[in-house]
Design a protein that fits this description.
Length: about 90
């Protein structure tokens, strides 16, 4: 008969258990990554929004100081379109 000595290597069960653990960890990491990606995008949008708000406030201030003429009475010194800010 053959001598069945323990050879170096992993059993099928050990590989299956390792794969299951890796899958569980990966399934936990993917939502965290997506959440982080969403938060980075929101920070980027917030920075752009603050920049736009600053431009609109500067336009209003210049209009109040009569450096920019109002085109419409209902405008109340705010730009009617975004192209006016450029």
């Amino acid at each position: 008969m053959r001598d069945r000595r323990r050879q170096g290597g992993f059993t099928y069960i050990e590989l299956l258990a390792t794969a299951a653990i890796v899958l569980v960890l990966a399934s936990a990491i993917v939502p965290i990554y997506r959440w982080d990606q969403k938060r980075r995008y929101e920070r980027w949008l917030k920075a752009d929004l603050e920049l736009m708000r600053g431009a609109i406030d500067q336009y209003k201030q210049m209009c109040d100081e009569k450096k920019i003429l109002e085109q419409d009475v209902e405008q109340m010194c705010y730009p009617l379109t975004l192209e006016e800010l450029v």
